[in-house]
Amino acid sequence: MVSLKKLRPLTPEFLDSIGFHWHTDTDETPYVADEAVIVTEAEAEAYYEAANELYDMFVEAGEHVVKNDLFHEIGIPFNLVDVVKKSWENDVHWHIYSRFDLSGGISGAPIKLLEFNADTPTALFETAIVQWALLKANDLNEAAQFNHVYEAIRDNFKRLVVLDGDLEDFEKYYRGWKVLFSAAKGHIEDENTTKLLQKMADDAGFHTAFAYVDEVEFSEDEGIFYEGEQYEYWFKLIPWEAIAIEESDLARILTKIIENQKAIVLNPAYTLMFQSKAMLKILWDLFPGHPLLLKTSFEPLGVKQVQKPFFGREGGSVKILNEKAEVIQSGEALYEDQPCIYQEFVKLPRDEAGNCYQAGLFFAYEGCGLGYRRGGEILGNMSKFVAHIID
After folding, report:
1. Rounded to an integer, what distance in angstroms lies between the CA atom of residue 45 and that of residue 80?
2. pLDDT digit string (tens) for 80-111?
3. Angle at the Cα of 253 (from 252 to 254), degrees rounded to 5?
4. Strand 327-330's sheet: what is its strand order?
């Protein structure tokens, strides 16, 4: 049973004042819960170790995909294969941040990987800022969390310059390189999440700017520009698969820009490999029976299982199936045209009211921050964010 600590909620006015405008769901209920999951020190340490081990496994699986040319098998669009390879081959294409979705870790349940949000993970603002503010507003020790997301991502921006070297050498090697941050116009959550990442890069020591993606100029021979100024790095909170499908010309130009070494795009194109749910099958092939993994296949498993589209998000087109592959429950039909994987079903921890809890664990060079989503067995867009406290 999930243990919870009651909290006084943050007011909508306060949340608006810090730029967190998506605090109320469409049914007029608060998106951020007025409770925190109670986590022990040992449980927090286990999450940390799991994230680090899982990331190393994904790197090994990525190398396996590249060496064996398995891009088609994991659903990489043909027009991104070259840029995925290019970004994988050179360490300067640094992975800034990502989020593992995990079952278990509390209530005595073992940690199991559900999926990896490696390209454009959401819930960053609430994990890094809101849950910290919740503890502070309730006169609790705001340090009593597994949560150094802000500092970890800030330091990871520094690694664009020093790579695996000493962070203290950033100023020694930094040459005034600039980072342009972009999101699509009209999506306040994406915009303010992107601006939060921009603040982290500012704090790291970079010169930065923000522009909506339709304001950015791209030249395959010259690079990336905004208002006449060239940028060495471009961070886009726009999924790589969306660029491939909806903006094929941009996919081609970005490939040329990277080939010509005129700019570096963040998160790198190779994170699309990690983002694909098909990598869960590759992981099972490489690490069969690993305690952090669930059995996964491209074919029904003959047990209770979950069907997931390769590039689905927020529970869209996720289906829970019985051992005969009959649908028991399904999420909103958003990605029905995509190929799917079949993953062994695992029960999520529950509270006394029967709500399910899924851990979201951010990774930026190492595991760096924990938060939870609460809802039904399929966690969709109406699930709630729940903070945590270490006790």
Report:
1. 37
2. 999 999 999 999 999 999 999 999 999 999 99
3. 95
4. 296-297, 340-344, 305-309, 319-321, 327-330
Nearest to 369 by CA among 117, 98, 133: 98
CB 39 within 8 A of CB 106: yes
| 153 touches 200 (CB < 8 A) | yes
**For 69, left (φ over 0), alpha (ψ -120 to 50), or beta?**
left
Both structure tokens of 248:
């094929």
Read out DSSP for 126-188? IIIIIHHHHHHHTTS-TTSSSB-HHHHHHHHHHHHHHTTS-GGGHHHH----EEEEE--TT-H
Q: Residue 203's closest CA among 153, 265, 267?
A: 153
Residue 381 has pLDDT above 90, yes or no: no
pLDDT of residue 49: 98
What is the helix, strand, coil percentage profile of the chain, to 5? 35, 25, 40
> Which pairing describes strands 207-210 and 217-219: parallel, antiparallel, or unpaired?
unpaired
Helices H / strands E in the chain, number of each: 12, 19
